[in-house]
Amino acid sequence: MKGISQKLNLSQPPIYLIDGSSYIYRAYYAFTDLKTKDGFPTNALFIVLRLLLKVLKQEEPKYACFVIDGKGPTFRHKIDTQYKANRLKMPEPLSQQIPPILEGVNLLGINTVVAEDFEADDYIASMCELFKKDMPVIIVGSDKDLFQLLDHNVFIWDPSGKQDKILTSEEFIKQKGFSPKSWPLYQAFIGDSSDNIKGVPGIGPKTGLTIIKRFSTIDEIFNNLDKLPPKIHKKLMNQRENVERFLELTTLKKDVPISTDLNFYKVKKKDVEKLRPFLEKYEFYSLIKELDLKQNKTIFQKDLNTNPTKIQIQEFKQRVEGDVIAVSINKSFRVATKKYECSVKEKEDILKIITKAKKVYIASIKDLIYKLEKHDISLSNLFDLSLGAYLIDPELRDYSLKSLASK
Asked: How many H-runs (helices) and E-runs (strands) does the chain carry?
């Protein structure tokens, strides 16, 4: 698949600035029922990780950063106490997922930033301002507040749909009819209901467009009210102070305290040692399979030596008391403890060994029952490897001992 940087024909590797908060909320409300067997919510976590895996696989980014909003109020709340007052508090099932989301993103090799005193978009704007002079910037997001950052070397990419959506400054101008730099002023006039910014009464998108196409700054607009149609002139009378306040809310800050060291944004190798147990904890077995993460140790390697000493059946029966053993079945039974291994042909012998052992790992209990026919078997100390493997990954086609051992 052709990457976005290739489609944009970029001459050097870009930095990817990921609007984490936007995707976290979208993921949470898009897929509400995903939980672990213990009831821990994982819907946002799963979708965000899958999205990032797509970015990593498709783009192979050299530099990237995942930015989310912090918990506290920002400078905008001091400007207007009603800013975002219509927003509901983050749902508890989503709040619970924020720490594992940050952990998972870091394990994938991407550094994370939690915004303080400012919003995630302000951090992205500041990073954009820092890097766009020296390298292309791809903002991974879809929030309309980010439109103002579009430039000849800054692009917005939304990979969350079936088809990639790419927005350039040229395409924005073609669609809207004005420069991306004028987007905050346009929003200040028409308002933004999602952020509880009221805008100028009576000024909607069409009227706002008329104003912005004529004049691109507050001074130009309010110094030339008489050049606007009378109806618009009347609506803007005595509104300059309000518009200036709204503009402070809609304009992203470009000077927030961020790391200026490019190495901070360098994408590292996935932490494979920790990534598999992390994904297992949240029961993301499809992601384990997708990433082809191998177990550090198989059950046999964990509990048994790989080359136990071969001994005779009588000696084996004496040494098996309370031990952990493994059983495989072919023409005869093969059994092994941590230190010893032997072949067992007689059914009575294998029953004695199984009864004496503290724990028995077996390729298939069903095969054992079939092999022993009418003999009574206590299942309390048996662990069925094929059944365990099925519970871990029900999509496997082969649960044979040979197949499991190879994994």
From this structure: 21, 12
The structure tokens 């420069």 sit at 179
Q: Tell me the per-residue pLDDT of 305-332, one tens digit each, with 9 for 90 and over.
A: 456 677 777 777 777 776 777 787 776 7
pLDDT digits (tens, 9 = 90+) for 373-404: 766 666 677 888 888 888 877 777 778 777 77
Neighbouring C-beta atoms of residue 225, cutoff 10 Å: 17
Q: Which amino acid is at 306?
A: T
Phi, psi of 68 (to 5 degrees): -130, 160
Bridging pattern class, strands 309-310 and 154-158: unpaired
Q: What spatial distance separates the first Cα and last Cα of the chain, rounded to whole Å?
A: 29
User: Edge to edge, what strands does the sheet with 63-68 contain?
Assistant: 111-114, 63-68, 15-19, 137-140, 154-158, 165-167
Please, are residues 20 and 66 in contact by the beta-carbon 8 Å criterion? Answer: yes
- Name the CA dihedral angle for 143, 149, 151, 155, rounded to a multiple of 10 degrees: -30
Across 181-192, b (16+ Cβ under 10 Å) vs e yields ebbbbbbbbbbb
Which of 232-252 are b and which e, b meaning 16 or more Cβ less than 10 Å from the residue's Cβ? beebbeebeebbeebbebbbb
Indicate if the alpha-carbon torsion angle 143, 133, 61, 270 is positive or negative: negative
CB 41 within 8 A of CB 92: no
Query: CA Rg, the chain, in Å?
Result: 31
Q: Which residue has the tokens 């059983």?
A: 327
CA 203 to chain centre: 39
Q: Would you say 160 and 140 are in contact if contact means Cβ atoms under 8 Å apart? A: no
Return the amino acid letter for 69: D
Beta-bridged to residue 139, according to DSSP, are 17, 156
Task: State the sign of the Cα–Cα–Cα–Cα dihedral 390, 296, 401, 345.
Answer: negative
Q: Are 373 and 339 in contact (CB under 8 A)?
A: no
